Structures are given as C-alpha cells and as structure tokens.
Amino acid sequence: MTLTSPDIKPLTRQNFPPNFVFGVATSAFQIEGATHEDGRGDSIWDTFCREPGRIRDGTNGDVACEHYHRLEQDLDLIQSLGVDAYRFSVAWPRIQPSGTGAANEAGLAFYERLVDGLSQRGIAAHLTLYHWDLPQALQDQGGWTNRQTAHHFAEYARIIGERLGHKVRSIATLNEPWCASILSYEIGEHAPGWHDRPAALSAAHHLLLGHGLAMQELRALKLSADLGTVLNLGPAYPATPADGAAAAVADGRFNRWFLDPVFRGEYPRDIWDGYGTDVPVVEAGDFEIIRAPLDFLGVNYYTRSYISASGEQPAGAVTTDMGWEVFPQGLSDLLIRLHADYTLPPIFITENGAAYPDTQNAEGDIHDPERVKYLESHLRAVLAAGEAGVDVRGYFGWSLMDNFEWAYGYSKRFGLVYVDYETQERTLKDSARWYQALAKS
Ligand code: FCB
Fold it and tell me: What NCBIfam families does the entry give (predicted)?
C-alpha cells in the first residue's frame, strides 16, 4: 500500500511546530442517536428529519452511530488513533430540553463522562456549544430570528461552562454560523428549511450576538479553557477577470460577513449595501458584544468556490463524493489571507476531510487512498501557511467516524473510521491508519 508519492517524504510530527495538536472531530446530532432518552428534548433536526423530502435517504438521527450508548468503546477508539485531542459538541436539548430553564442532570452527566473519559485517556477535550441542534421549543418562537434566542444561548453556555468548563481545553461557541443561518433560513437545505433572506440575515446576526453574549458568560467564569468560535471559510476564485466583482461578493457573503463582525466589529460595507433592505436590525452596542477578544479561531475548510458567469468549471478539477473540488491550495491561500487582513488569535483547523463511497472488502478492509491524499495534501497546505507566518496550532480531521451527514443522511461517508450501520461495528479505514501513524510518529 503506497500512501504517499515515493518522491515526497511522508509527513511526521517533526514537520509540524512543537505541540501542534492532531485531533478528530464529530458533532452530537451526527453520532449520538438516543434522541428521546434521558430527558432530551426535540431539536430542529429531529423535526426536520420528520418532514418528507428533507433528508435525501429519508433517515434521521434516532440511532446514528449509537455513540450515546457506546461512549466507552468510542473513547477507546479515539485513543487507539493516538490523537492528542477530540472535538465534539454538546446537544443543547439534552441540557435544556426546551431551550430555557433548569439543566437536565442526565444530559450534563453524559458529557461529564465524556470529558472525564477523555482526560483518563490523556486526550484533550475541545467542546463546541452549538453544532446546529437548536431546541425545537425555541424554533417554535422563531429560532435564531428571535433575538431572545441569543440570550437563551448565553444562559446555556453558562450552564456548560460552570459544569464542564474547568475540564476542557477549549470551548467554541458556534460551529459555522453561515450554515446555521444562510444555509438553514435562506437556502433551506438545513433545519429549519426556510427560504427567507431577511430571516437568514437576522438569524446570522443573532447567532453572532449569541456568540458574544456566551463569551461574556464564559469569561466571567475565569476558566482555564481557551474560548473561541468556529467559522466555515473558503476562498472564492474568479474564473476570469470579468468574474472578479462576483467573486468579491461571494467572498463577502460567505467569509467577511462573519469575520468582520467578530474581528472588526462591523459588517462589510459593500455586502451590507448590496443586501439593501434585507439587512438585519443591529442594536446599539451589539458589535461591542460580538467583537469580544477570542483565544482562538476555529477554521473549517473543505473546498473553495469558483466563480464563473459562464458556469465554467476549474480545469482538471477532482471532486469528492460531495461534488466538492479537492483544492488544498485554497486552505493555504485562505490562511495567508486571513493573517494579512485581520488581527487574529491562534488558529485551529477544526474541520477538514472528505467523503468517498467507501466499501469494506471481503477481508474487512476499507481502502480509501483518495482520503489519505486529501488529508495529506491539506496538512501540507497548513504547513505552507505556517511557513508564511500563520499561527496554526492544530488540525482536526472530519470525522472520527462515518455519521449522519445532515441533508444527505448516511449516504456520505466522511469518517476515518468506517461504520457498518447494520451492526454498528467500527473499522479503521486505511486513512485512519495513516493518520494514526502520523499522530504516533
Ligand atoms: C461541516 C459541518 C460538519 C460536517 C461537514 C462535512 O459543514 O460542520 O458537521 O457535516 O461539514
């Protein structure tokens, strides 16, 4: 099995700065299952999955990877990979089944077992507060379009901070606010599945506000954990010079709309003007809250966008099972640009990975050379950014194991570890072994 081209030396830890963190990532709804156990309330994804046609393969999160019931086994699995860190999310509806009020002890106890189990195994816990599973009861009041949701989120953040904050290495407030707003309220592909741009921009604003309010609550607890947030970012490249203006808009809507409030305390003027009357209500003082200093920025990177009025595709593009172009240079370009344009805290690549239609052969092996190539080339892009002066402290492969890929259900496999959904058996793919060799090097 040749995992690296023969003329390039395989990556080892020696290539990376000392203390560079190698981790794997998941999120609650995508792996836990047990959606109706131990007092968990409905989330917007439970509701969304019940609506016909929303999920390509008609599945839901009820069982998923049964992680809720296989916690110890999965912790052992993570440990077997030799990684330093594990990024996971807490399901808000396990903690506050209707989004407000007293904490549900059974929910807290589950995540406490998780972080204690990581610590016993010498693995750093990187906790994300919100990876899209909003309590349905809050959606019934408008979800993120309701400003009050930001305040509820801050209260939930305090509950988690108080109980788990001293046991984790980092806390990220949000995962990918672009997805939780635009993809969910404007494009309608994610829960709650709306098609309403003003609502989406209002949701985005309240997510950012919720982030800032949660930062205030967490800071007040004086935790040793690093505090930050996670954005999904990707550069937009114009196919021709004539596509330059459109690429600037794409970049502004996807990247700057979230970066500028957090790091500059303002929305990008060009994009704000372009949105016309669709822009959100910003109250006095909002940006002061939103621009709270961060200890780290999490960057999720999968692909670039290629902007072409004629619909032209990039020459020679190779794509994953998601149809996403494999473009590692986009990650180094992105990081170098972020470093040039913003004053940033240390960066972690909190997600990066690829879906391929993996199958288990008769011997039980899963050969996924494309994923190995994807991971390796993107890790090299991180190294290139580092050489250009960008302070990247760690990398989390998405994902620990195959899981519920949102609107695609179980049809897209992003795991380093293969999951047989019939038996719930977990098997290391070649990519997991490759990553393990790197992590243990
Ligand atoms: C990201 C999500 C993550 C996963 C990957 C493929 O946008 O944060 O949950 O679905 O995409």
Answer: BGL
Q: Choosing from 32, 351, 376, 405, which is the catalytic residue?
A: 351
Q: pLDDT tens digits, residue range 318-336?
A: 999 999 999 999 999 999 9
Q: Confirm whether 151 is domain-assigned.
A: yes
CATH code where residue 340 lies: 3.20.20.80
Exposure class string for 151-161: b at 16+ Cβ within 10 A, else e = bbbbbbbbbbb
C-alpha–C-alpha distance, residues 199 and 207, integer Å: 12
Is residue 236 within 8 A of residue 271, CB to CB? The reply is no
Does the residue 70 lie in any domain? Answer: yes
Residue 48 maps to a domain: yes
Q: Among 301, 351, 404, 411, say which to mutate for ligand 1: greatest number of ligand atoms within 8 Å of CB.
A: 351
In degrees and rounded to multiples of 5, residue 5 shows phi and psi of: -65, 140
| Helix, strand, coil tally for the chain in percent (to 5) | 45, 15, 40
Domain around 153 = 13-440
Q: Which pLDDT value is given to residue 6?
A: 54
The answer, yes or no, to whether residue 339 has pLDDT greater than 70, is yes
Q: Which spans in 252-305 are helix H?
A: 257-264, 269-275, 286-290
Whether 244 is in a domain gets the answer yes
The distance of Cα 298 from the centroid of its chain, to the nearest Å, equals 8
Single-letter amino acid code for the residue at 303: T
**Number of compact structural domains in the chain:** 1
Instruction: Say if CB 405 and CB 60 are below 8 A apart.
Output: no
Whether residue 179 has its Cβ less than 6 Å from ligand 1: yes
Q: What is the reported pLDDT for 118?
A: 99
- Report how far residue 214's alpha carbon sits from residue 156's, in angstroms, rounded to the nearest whole number: 8
